[in-house]
């Protein structure tokens, strides 16, 4: 052993070769400050030896290197620009010094080589991957760009077009695809990886492979003539503008950096990369997206702990109600290899549920993501039935019948009589109190809410709602079941609307008040989509939800929280519901839905809706973007704060992830609490106070007012 650190070691092999092995103390290798420091020390040791012909770089774990240690970023990025620039430049220079070793280097890549891990392989002269490898630069998902030479080396290895596609999308490549694009030099079976990489290293040292030419290419300007460069970078800029839009600066910065550095050598190009990295590190988008990553890690960690604590194994699921939701839930269990009984009271309903599952699978086949075998096995996992007794052996029953408390109570009572004493019973209700439904059951401790979002197969979130009498064992088992279905479970306590719908309906109320005050719903949608970043504006979202569903849920919320959520007498939603304008369900809502001559869907603002609302709304008025955003988002934020203060949700991080995964909250804003923090708590309170006269949903709690005064954070 010629170097020993906590994260890596260097030892001599036979015939004058050395191997640098990453093997951190934790479960994975990552580039934290300690590892970077040790890599630099190991490089100095290697450089000082005159008996080494080449270095093999590999991992002793099931993955190569998963990337940089994100947990160090939040503290680091809070420092001034010069400090951040100094850090990233010094770190990048460690990779340069390794690249400049006076002998060939080969990376043996297994498992994930992402971010800094990918950049480490690029600092090597050659790369061999095994069939488990996934290689990529996903920094864009954190609102950042590569900072350790990725934007410099990758374009010079695989060409600027391919490199920009890698970096601006953040998608990783399996070994064979990386080989096809020139990012690696060979792909072998896992058991042959070390031997193959060592063989390549020996060929390089003997002169059979021209490693020096490869290295020179990485350190030289890009080989593009003027026309090629103009075409390449203009195409990349247009693609980024179309896909990423204006809210995500990272992919735009990557294109600009690679373009401006294309005529420079390594040192000049790396300087531009470092400067671009610092600019991005200081953006609100990066703070938000890094916040999402850390919150996601917290939610996943919490879920795994709860699932690990589960004492009951779930072998058979049952779904009651075979409509769109029931069929979607049945599909989700079945596609993950779990048998599921789907029960309804009519053959037509069962056919609808199976049709929903088939439709999802058929679309997957059209996109090449599902083959005939997968389709058959998924459908075979679903057993449709009209008989309650068919689910008597189910370990977990999910009730997904119509959103009506009396109907649900009846179905749940019948279910309890049928299933085993230790079977867990869940309700896929979106607003009805779990405590209220539990009153109809003999064993409320085994009853819990399990709220899926539509469409089930696309929406990652499952809200798990703990009632007053729900046991920990029940919650843990349902968390485990949700994870097995491939969902992200977040546990909340019972209240009207739970978490997601409780914060959504004040947002809808803010929208309704704005329309009644003379705002054009099309203009409001445009601001909330284009400026704030929601995937749908409130009018469009209400059309998708359905006026009947929205009106019913608003009634439940009004009954449960009358002090803030009383229904508005002439609410545009209720007016349309009474006029049998249900939104997309019947093609008539705020917008009219149809198809054009080519059969493509159309959506146009409805003249009939304008006419219907005319006698109820004030004279037409233009509201500026800031006021529209404030009047919709302050009620949502206030209700989220109340949910946190009342203990409905465990943390700001969990609330943010719930809205991100359940509602599509704009990722570049990081979630509702991250949005509040980005504005600044004091500024948020001032904004809310400006509209406090509009009613209780705009009035902040004493808690947030005190936090603002004390300069505290929801993420401390």
From TrEMBL:
Taxonomy, superkingdom: Bacteria
Gene Ontology MF annotations: 3-hydroxybutyryl-CoA epimerase activity; delta(3)-delta(2)-enoyl-CoA isomerase activity; enoyl-CoA hydratase activity; long-chain (3S)-3-hydroxyacyl-CoA dehydrogenase (NAD+) activity; NAD+ binding
This protein's record includes keyword Transferase: no
Domain 3-hydroxyacyl-CoA dehydrogenase NAD binding, residue spans: 318-495
Entries under PANTHER family matching the protein: TRIFUNCTIONAL ENZYME SUBUNIT ALPHA, TRIFUNCTIONAL ENZYME SUBUNIT ALPHA, MITOCHONDRIAL
Family: Belongs to the enoyl-CoA hydratase/isomerase family. In the N-terminal section; belongs to the enoyl-CoA hydratase/isomerase family.
Name of the protein in question: enoyl-CoA hydratase
């Amino acid at each position: 052993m010629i170097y020993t650190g906590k994260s890596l070691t260097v030892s001599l092999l036979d015939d004058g070769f050395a191997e640098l092995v990453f093997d951190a103390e934790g479960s994975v290798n990552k580039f934290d400050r300690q590892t970077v420091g040790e890599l630099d020390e190991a490089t100095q040791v290697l450089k000082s030896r005159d008996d080494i012909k080449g270095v093999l770089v590999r991992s002793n774990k099931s993955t190569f290197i998963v990337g940089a240690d994100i947990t160090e970023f939040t503290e680091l990025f809070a420092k001034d620009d010069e400090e951040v620039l100094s850090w990233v430049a010094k770190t990048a220079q460690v990779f340069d010094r390794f690249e400049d070793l006076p002998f060939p280097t080969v990376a043996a890549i297994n498992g994930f080589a992402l971010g800094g891990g990918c950049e480490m392989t690029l600092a090597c002269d050659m790369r061999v991957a095994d069939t488990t490898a996934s290689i990529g630069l996903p920094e864009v998902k954190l609102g950042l760009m590569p900072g350790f030479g990725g934007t410099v080396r990758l374009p010079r290895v695989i060409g600027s077009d391919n490199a920009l596609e890698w970096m601006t999308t953040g998608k990783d490549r399996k070994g064979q695809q990386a080989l096809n694009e020139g990012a690696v030099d060979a792909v072998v079976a896992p058991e042959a990886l070390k031997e193959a990489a060592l063989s390549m290293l020996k060929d390089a040292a003997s002169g059979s492979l021209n490693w020096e030419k490869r290295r020179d290419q990485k350190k030289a300007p890009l080989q593009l003539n003027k026309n090629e460069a103009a075409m390449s970078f203009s195409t990349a800029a247009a693609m980024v503008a179309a896909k990423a839009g204006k809210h995500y600066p990272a992919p735009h910065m990557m294109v600009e950096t690679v373009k401006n550095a294309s005529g420079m050598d390594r040192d000049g190009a790396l300087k531009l990369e470092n400067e671009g990295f610092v600019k991005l590190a200081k953006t609100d988008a990066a703070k938000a997206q890094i916040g999402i990553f850390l919150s996601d890690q917290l939610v996943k960690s919490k879920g795994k702990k709860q699932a690990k604590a589960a004492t009951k194994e779930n072998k058979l699921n049952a779904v009651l109600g075979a409509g769109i939701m029931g069929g979607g839930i049945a599909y989700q269990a079945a596609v993950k290899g779990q048998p599921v009984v789907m029960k309804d009271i009519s053959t037509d309903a069962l056919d609808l549920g199976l049709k929903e599952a088939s439709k999802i699978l058929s679309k997957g086949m059209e996109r090449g993501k599902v083959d005939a075998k997968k389709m058959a096995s998924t459908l075979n996992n679903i057993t449709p039935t009209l008989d309650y007794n068919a689910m008597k052996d189910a370990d977990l029953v999910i009730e997904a019948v119509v959103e009506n408390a009396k109907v649900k109570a009846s179905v749940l009572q019948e279910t309890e009589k049928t299933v085993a004493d230790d079977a867990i019973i869940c309700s896929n209700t979106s607003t009805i109190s779990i405590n209220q439904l539990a009153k109809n059951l003999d064993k409320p401790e085994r009853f819990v809410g399990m709220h899926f979002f539509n469409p089930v197969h696309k929406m990652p979130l499952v809200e798990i709602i703990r009632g007053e009498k729900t046991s920990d064992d029940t919650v843990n088992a349902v968390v485990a079941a949700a994870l097995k279905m491939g969902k992200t479970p977040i546990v909340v306590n019972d209240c009207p609307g739970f978490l997601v719908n409780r914060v959504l309906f004040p947002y809808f109320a803010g929208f309704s008040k704005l329309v009644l005050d003379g705002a054009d719903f099309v203009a409001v949608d445009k601001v909330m989509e284009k400026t704030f970043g929601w995937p749908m504006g409130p009018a469009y979202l209400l059309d998708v939800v359905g006026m009947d569903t929205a009106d019913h849920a608003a009634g439940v919320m009004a009954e449960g929280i009358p002090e803030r959520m009383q229904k508005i007498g002439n609410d545009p939603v209720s007016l349309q519901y009474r006029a049998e304008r249900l939104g997309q369900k019947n093609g008539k809502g705020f917008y009219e839905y149809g198809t054009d001559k080519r059969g493509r869907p159309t959506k146009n603002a409805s003249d009939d809706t304008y006419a219907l609302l005319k006698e109820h709304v004030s004279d037409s008025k233009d509201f500026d973007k800031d006021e529209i955003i404030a009047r919709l988002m302050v009620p949502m934020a206030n209700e989220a704060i109340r949910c946190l203060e009342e203990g409905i949700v465990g943390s700001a991080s969990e609330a943010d992830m719930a809205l991100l995964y359940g509602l599509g909250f704009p990722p570049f804003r990081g979630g509702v609490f991250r949005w509040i923090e980005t504005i600044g708590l004091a500024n948020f309170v001032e904004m809310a106070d400006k509209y406090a006269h509009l009613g209780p949903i705009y009035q902040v709690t004493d808690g947030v007012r005190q936090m603002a005064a004390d300069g505290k954070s929801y993420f401390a």
